[in-house]
Amino acid sequence: MAFEDRLAQRVLGLDVSGIRKVFDLGLKLKDPINFSIGQPDFRVPDPVKQAALQAIREDRNGYTPTQGLPDLLEAVRADATARGLRFEDLIITSGVSGGLLLAFGALLDPGDEVILPDPYFLMYKQLARFLGAKATYVNTYPDFRCTAERLEPLLRREPKLVVINAPGNPTGVGLDARQWSDLADLLARHPRTAVLSDEIYRLFHYDGAYVSLAGLADNVITLDGFSKSHAVTGWRVGWALGPKAVLQQMAKLQQFTFVCAPSFAQRASLAALKHSMEAERQSYARKRDLIYSLLEAKYEVERPQGTFYIFPKVPERYASAQAFVEKALEHNLLIIPGSVFSERDTHYRISFATSEEKLQAGACILNELAE
Ligand SMILES: Cc1ncc(COP(=O)(O)O)c(C=O)c1O
Prior knowledge:
Shape: globular
Oligomer: single chain
CATH superfamily of the largest domain: Type I PLP-dependent aspartate aminotransferase-like (Major domain)
Structural class: alpha/beta
Bound molecules: pyridoxal-5'-phosphate
Low-confidence stretches: none
Number of domains: 2
């Protein structure tokens, strides 16, 4: 194959094998019960679609400023300020993924240390690797809470960056009010370590008020976006809030990479910000209750406070989560092994962003496998 021996180590070091294996296996199944999909199953609200169509028809198809459309920046600023977040600057990004690349790129030199909660969203690990940074993991098993107590020993070395994602992918587990305030106190004692809070699942929060870390602590880089909240994962719009010094470097990097988030989608995002997703949130809260109630008798499982994921433990008699996932596939059920999101392979991820009938049918298979 041409150029096979000419490729950069930077990309050869990235590992997609875990997730690719699941997708390859899934392709072989005919109409599987699919619990592997990381996006909502509701439709994009009509006013949001209309705004996108209108932007294209009105020929607003050119570049926007690299920081984002001024109207959208203003609306995001007003919304975040109303929620009590503290920040100096903001930019519109190409999804939260875009924000992650910019933030990691702005902060991490080769050899720098970044602290990641384990289990983690898989992109964190691969981006750190891409940049030659060193990831250190906070083991959050078995309750998946990235608490101040667990984090404290790792902050003593003054790592460059720590990532918080609560409630997060793949566990759906967050922190309680006391744990948030302890975490904010700890971070205040380590002002040289930057904190990135990935709040992409903010809408999908089912118990009590949602806590944004930037409402409790200074100098937090907050990433958020529309992908999940409005089911527009293909549109690529998010935003980043935080300290001016970091945000300015992120904007500079955006100028030379993404250039800007898609222009029609930025315009439609203005409509998205005005549109209530409360009915969808309540529907997902019911799905959370349903899947948890169906699995809790047979599985060791934490009740998610948010997201549309749940992360049960694989029964002891299976050699690994991979082996369990392969068994589930024989029953036409698609789930993801924990090793995709973790240094361990003892759990599996379900996305419950699907119909209640599918949840019932899938849980029935899972409960048979646990017999
Ligand atoms: C925790 C987390 N952060 C970021 C993303 C990426 O979101 P976006 O579509 O906005 O790039 C995902 C998507 O699965 C996620 O689970």
